[in-house]
Design goal:
Elements: E1 4-9, H1 16-27, E2 30-33, H2 34-47, H3 55-64, E3 67-69, E4 78-80, E5 83-84, H4 92-102, H5 105-120, E6 124-129, H6 132-136, E7 142-147, H7 150-160, H8 167-181, E8 195-198, H9 204-222
Parallel strand pairs: 1-6, 1-7, 2-6, 7-8
Antiparallel strand pairs: 3-4, 4-5
Helix pairs in contact: 1-9, 2-4, 3-5, 4-8, 7-8
Bound molecules: 2'-deoxycytidine-5'-monophosphate.
Length: 223
């Protein structure tokens, strides 16, 4: 089968993870959740007692992190030094701390290098995050920005977290985090050559199909 590298970026709640996973299954590709890597190294820094306001210490903790991430779209697993953190990294204490790592340029450079190595080592891969189309894999065969209106994103996040959080908490979490993260990476406007798929009015299946169409169109043009 032909090698294919697909880069997908987008904000929280755009449906990026579930859509990218399903597109990977249908393309017989592996799947890389780079956000999970940011979360896992954040857990590691917290676990090691790192002062998150100390940029050099945060960068050192990230460099020292022995991280494993499953690339199987059907197996969600991420470990740090052998400790399974798959569930823990989704908890609010990690979500609240992750921007300290995501805005640390040295930490980003380390994770970008590891992500590029993973992409290089895999023939068929969909990698998703915030800077995949622009920084990690600007030469990907297909690059997509998956967007959705603020309203649709908040609604989806609410469902994803089991509807346990108040609207204000959700809004603070999703919008504040995006605002912080977008100070270092731009994932709200498609860069040159990046196709935009707006999922606001699409259901899951329609979004997957729109993404697959965009991939096919770009991969044939770039071939
Ligand atoms: O997609 P997510 O919510 O799991 O991402 C977790 C955090 O990592 C979020 O604050 C954005 C950041 N991130 C990033 O800066 N660059 C990436 N390529 C992926 C995620």
């Amino acid at each position: 089968m032909q090698r294919i590298v697909v880069a997908i970026d987008g904000p929280s709640g755009s449906g990026k993870s579930s859509v990218s996973k399903e597109a990977a299954r249908r393309l017989n590709a592996v799947y890389l959740d780079t956000g999970a890597m940011y979360r896992a190294v954040t857990w590691h820094a917290l676990d090691a007692g790192t002062d998150l306001s100390d940029a050099a210490a945060v960068a050192a903790a990230v460099k020292a992190a022995d991280l494993f991430i499953s690339l199987d779209p059907d197996v969600e697993k991420i470990t740090i030094h052998g400790t399974d953190v798959t569930e823990t990294i989704r908890e609010p204490f990690v979500s609240e701390a992750v921007s300290a790592v995501a805005t640390n340029l040295e930490a980003r450079a380390e994770l970008v290098a590891r992500q590029r190595a993973i992409i290089e080592a895999n023939e068929r891969i969909i990698a998703e995050g915030r800077d995949i189309t622009t920084v990690v894999a600007p030469d990907a065969d297909a690059r997509i920005l998956l967007t959705a209106s603020e309203e649709a994103r908040l609604r989806r996040r609410g469902i994803q977290l089991g509807g346990t959080q108040s609207e204000a908490e959700l809004e603070a979490q999703v919008l504040a985090r995006d605002a912080k993260d977008s100070t270092v990476v731009n994932f709200t406007v498609a860069a040159d050559g990046v196709a935009t798929v707006d999922s606001s009015d699409l259901d899951f299946e329609q979004t997957v199909l729109a993404v697959l169409e965009a991939i096919t169109a770009q991969a044939s043009t770039n071939a």
